[in-house]
Amino acid sequence: MKGEAKLEQRVISTAERLLAGRKSVSALEVLTGIGWLSDRDVDAWRLGRAPDLSGALAVGPEKVALALQALQRWAAEQRLEAGEVPHIGASRTREELRVTADDEAERVFRTHWTMPGLSEARRAQVTARQAKVPDLVVVSAVEDWVCAQCGDTGELLFLENDAPHCLDCVDMGHLIFLGAGDATLTRRAKKASGLSAVVMRFNRSRKRYDRLGILLEQGALDQAEESCLADEDLRQRRRVRDGERRAAQDVGFIARFQEEIRRLFPGCPAERAEEIAQHAGTRGSGRVGRSAAGQALDERAVTLAVIASIRHLDTDYDELLMSGVPRQDARDRIAAVIDQVLDRWRDSGRGTPAPTR
Ligand SMILES: [Zn+2]
After folding, report:
1. Which of 236, 243, 190, 237 is nearest to 217 (CA)?
2. Centroid of ligand 1 to alpha carbon of 143 (angstroms)
3. How far, in Å, from the CA of 154 to the mean position of ligand 1?
4. What is the pTM of this model?
5. Which tens digits make up the pLDDT trace of 3-16?
6. pLDDT at residue 173 in the model
């Protein structure tokens, strides 16, 4: 009994401290706060590395049950407002995660208790934080791995359905890396980028994930750099990046690829065809350019590259992914729009009259 009272006291003081700072509190935050769960285990769980957190808890289920009861009693006494928020995973499938195998405990774990009497704005802020869909997370691999879809490997991987995938196979191959360090630049570029993902690497000696930087769209980074950097720094960065890109490009392949796009899709704007071909012909980006089919300028490979471009630039696919819609659902929702654009680009020059001048 004495032990129970002591435990209850620990739970309450931790919950009070969290509530004072964040205006809301959840069971997961309390268990982490009293040291029964480590941030490392919670991070790994969010990445889909563990089915639930029961194995990561430092204490047995009876003690957890006592702590949850104490927390619920305290929240009721304080007249806190309870609301359930699902735990959404940081892997691309964005599936709902479970903390335990027990349904009743699970409901308590989904509950966030919010301080009553908050202003409208503060309340909105707290609700947004509770419901916040976590960033998409790309892992910088420390161990050997192969892509579950294409069998390739690389420096960066994305976990989907518990299996590692290369970025090309999960439609993220066009993103470029910005290292951590400049917080303002990162924030602005992320805001401007339709699709972005945080890059994490497991630090073996410190036993936790470090944030290396962020993957985002080239255009978003250009835009953010222009608003953040002095002209001299800007020119210097562009020179370095252009040089790196040129070194990785297969110029002959790009020209042939571009020609093939124009032949199959006469209505595709010239700049777009150039952009798609450049991406396909740059080493380290674009499965199409790497594969034998792509090298042979197979019609299907060229069409896939065109579709990838339409998906990111002419549909709200990236927005759907960022808002937590699973990849396959997002693809299904935009399929009709892709077909429309493909038809338009195929037809143009045949069915439509030539412009008069
Ligand atoms: Zn792959």
Report:
1. 190
2. 17
3. 9
4. 0.64
5. 889 999 999 999 99
6. 87
C-alpha 33 to ligand 1 mean position (Å): 39
Residue type, 1: M
For residue 256, report the distance from its CA to the centre of ligand 1, in Å: 24
SS3 label, residue 177:
strand
Q: What is the pLDDT of residue 3?
A: 85
Long-range contact set of residues 160-168: C-beta below 8 Å, sequence gap at least 24: 160/91, 160/92, 160/93, 160/327, 161/91, 161/93, 162/48, 162/91, 164/139, 165/92, 166/287, 167/138, 167/215, 168/285, 168/286, 168/287
Name the one residue in this structure whose structure tokens are 């029964």: 36
Token reading at 203? 């630090």
Mean pLDDT of 46-60: 87
Q: Which residues contact 111 (CB under 8 A, 6 or more apart)?
A: 26, 27, 82, 83, 84, 85
How are the residues of the chain apportioned to helix, strand and coil, as percentages rounded to the nearest 5? 55, 15, 35
CA 102 to chain centre: 29
Q: How far is the CA of 165 from the centre of ligand 1 (A)?
A: 5
